[in-house]
Design brief:
seven-stranded mixed sheet; Metal Binding Protein, Guanine Nucleotide Exchange Factor, Chain A; three-stranded antiparallel sheet; single chain; 1 helix; mainly beta; binds zinc ion
Amino acid sequence: MSTAKTDTTRGHCFCGAIEYEFSGAPKWVMHCHCESCRRAVSSAVATYVGVNIDQFHYLKGTPSIYESSPGVKRYFCPTCGSPMAYAGSRWPKEVHLFIGTLDNPAKYSPTGHAHIEERVNWFDVHDDLPRFKETAGHGATPVAKGPGKK
Ligand SMILES: [Zn+2]
Ligand SMILES: [Zn+2]
């Protein structure tokens, strides 16, 4: 008999200067289609892994911070520029990591789409995940279900 070993997930930036880990499962994994996140990652969509701040710590390096709006901190590697994390005063107990920084991004699957109305129109997604007008937190109800087959 032994107690279940807590699962640990690691991630790092492109150059390896920043490494982190978190324990246990993330709270959620969401695609965000808002313009701010799009610009922060310079890509059509930003996919976040939300974890409790007390599950998370850096193993190596210290990211730089860009405060994109009051109360919003976006962390990135000062050497290679990889976006690493998002922290917002709306979610003081969470850190939102970017799924592309995980050692294994296939480990956790997305659970929904946030800010779906700001989606770039050619970025068409055919999945069954719920789509939210804004964020999925605070009991938000999806504006639509995915069009994919059941
Ligand atoms: Zn780096
Ligand atoms: Zn966003």
